[in-house]
Amino acid sequence: MFVDLTKAFDTISYERLRRTMEKFGCPGEFVSMVHQFHYGMLVRVPDDGDSTDAFPVTNGVKHGCVLAPALFSMMFSAMLSNAFLDDKESRIKIRYRLNGRRFNLGRLQAKTKVEEDFVHDFLFADDSTLNTATEAQSRRA
């Protein structure tokens, strides 16, 4: 299923972002820096040569920020991991080795040194592909 997440970057809660970064093991100083960069932000909206009164922004990451896609990806991955926690049907299994030559597929048949991981989704900025096997899984995703 292909998903275009319209306004995706605007929906991120600052508090959830902080908790997710901590859960993913981001260093405390980095979490604090990102939180300070976004929290307490005030904006004014230009209106026909004038501007509105300043008001607080409580959700979203800054557009154009080089960290925004990575922060959104982290949040979306955490959400999908939670959604697909018990779902074994829609996973794509990937086998890989970290040693040796690339593109030698015979190495993946070995019984040792082969790692396996599972993928539910592929992300690029605010576009996503979710792997689902049934209509019910599509609705849940």
Automatic annotation (TrEMBL):
<keyword id="KW-0472">Membrane</keyword>
<keyword id="KW-1133">Transmembrane helix</keyword>
<feature type="transmembrane region" description="Helical">
    <location>
        <begin position="66"/>
        <end position="85"/>
    </location>
</feature>
<dbReference type="InterPro" id="IPR000477">
    <property type="entry name" value="RT_dom"/>
</dbReference>
<dbReference type="Pfam" id="PF00078">
    <property type="entry name" value="RVT_1"/>
</dbReference>
<keyword id="KW-0812">Transmembrane</keyword>
<protein>
    <recommendedName>
        <fullName>Reverse transcriptase domain-containing protein</fullName>
    </recommendedName>
</protein>
<feature type="domain" description="Reverse transcriptase">
    <location>
        <begin position="1"/>
        <end position="141"/>
    </location>
</feature>
